[in-house]
Amino acid sequence: MSVRAPFNLDVIRADFPILRRKTPEGRTIVYLDNAATSQKPESVIEAISQYYRAHNANVHRGVHVLSEEATQAYESARQKVAQFLNAPNERNIVFLRGTTEAINLLAQSYGRPNLGPGDEILISHMEHHSNIVPWQVVCRQTGAELKVVPIDEHGVLDIEAFEAMLSERTRIFSCVHVSNALGTINPIKRMVSRARSVGAITMVDGAQAAPHMPIDVQDLDCDFYAISGHKMFGPTGIGALYGRAELLESMDPYQAGGEMIKYVSFEKTVYNEVPHKFEAGTPNIAGAVGLGAAVDYLRSIDFEAAMGHEEDLLEYGRQQLERLPEVRLIGTAKEKAGVLSFWMEGTHPHDVGTILSHEAICVRTGHHCAQPVMQRFGIPATIRASLAFYNNHEDLDALIEGLKKVKRVMLG
Questions:
Q1: 362 is catalytic
Q2: Distance from C-alpha of 87 to C-alpha of 291, rounded to nearest angstrom
Q3: Which of the ends of the chain has fewer CB neighbours closer than 10 A, N or C?
Q4: Which class for 165: exposed (0-12), middle (13-18), buried (19 or more C-beta within 10 A)?
Q5: Could you tell me which of 122, 132, 214 has the C-alpha nearest to residue 170?
Q6: Do 9-31+302-411 and 46-299 fold alike per CATH?
Q7: What tens-digit pLDDT sequence spans the chain (412 residues)?
Q8: Catalytic residue (choose from 139, 222, 362, 369)
Q9: What is the CATH topology of the domain spanning 9-31+302-411?
Q10: Within 10 Å of residue 5's Cβ, how many Cβ atoms?
Q11: Is 118 left (phi over 0), alpha (psi -120 to 50) or beta?
């Protein structure tokens, strides 16, 4: 078992080379766009580079030394992800491009064959588009109906409405663990338990949760849980789906081709074993290696202290933003993680983002692939400053000073 180092913010920040990056004007980058993608520690960058320098080959079935080394690295990453999520076995982990592909896989491999008219899929009003559109597609394909749990003015799910909407017709419940647009942390364990009590299959979008809190899929007792590597300090184009073994065994592949087969003839094809039957074609081997390195990094730091630091940042940022009379915070749940979304009166978020960029402050502006959330609050977009444990108070101070410049430029 690795020894966790004490949480030292200066040491942590030194692990991320891009945080030392300066703009052509000489300003140091202030990165507050972590919900879109996180930055990568040196250990992840080096793991990917070392794979290509010394071990690059295709995985599985190759008998030469490079193929065996690449296979070992790829499957070792699967084991690391299984441990990170506390999955019972590495065979519960399917490598995919990310949470979006994971939800599409579930929609097509489980939803499409098992749903029909009269069945219901239950999601929430705060979902990312990737947890809305795949279910809409399945509803059109099967005749099932999509139901949506409302949220209140603070961006909190209406749990009473959720429980009232559950019935024997609820076949799938799919919900975000942490909202990317609001930061709201949902009571997923309670919701999964209630959904399973009516016989629903449960899917959790954990893309925004994995960077901010420990995940234990056995404790949550969910059927499926998805993560995206690039949100949790790993590379883009790689993620993982945890699935309950018996459900994965029962599902047909989402994509077909090489790797996902055991035997092929023109008359018959026998699929490979789980999880390989869901990994058609040459996988993102370097991405998996990088994701494994990101897991190693997260397991090497004092994650509890990192969470406490993020909570302090979130509260500090909230207090500073509330002192600006032009700012309206969007998403004020008591249980939140890493997101400060807001609207600035008299401005458009894109203009705010542009001015902040000139000050080397990186925030995200727009609907954040969560247009129903924007519709709920009656706005077209928000300015979103999203945090990671490598951020500091100075980053938030720079944001506030940047917003004061926005006021001077745009509001006089």
A1: no
A2: 16
A3: N
A4: middle
A5: 122
A6: no
A7: 455 678 899 999 999 999 999 999 999 999 999 999 999 999 999 999 999 999 999 999 889 999 999 999 999 999 999 999 999 999 999 999 999 999 999 999 999 999 999 999 999 999 999 999 999 999 999 999 999 999 999 999 999 999 999 999 999 999 999 999 999 999 999 999 999 999 999 999 999 999 999 999 999 999 999 999 999 999 999 999 999 999 999 999 989 999 999 999 999 999 999 999 999 999 999 999 999 999 999 999 999 999 999 999 999 999 999 999 999 999 999 999 999 999 999 999 999 999 999 999 999 999 999 999 999 999 999 999 999 999 999 999 999 999 999 999 988 7
A8: 369
A9: Aspartate Aminotransferase, domain 1 (3.90.1150)
A10: 12
A11: left
Domain map of the chain by residue range? Answer: 9-31+302-411, 46-299
User: What are 10's two structure tokens?
Assistant: 């200066």
- Our measurement of the distance from residue 352's CA atom to the centroid of its chain's CA atoms, rounded to an integer in Å, reads 26
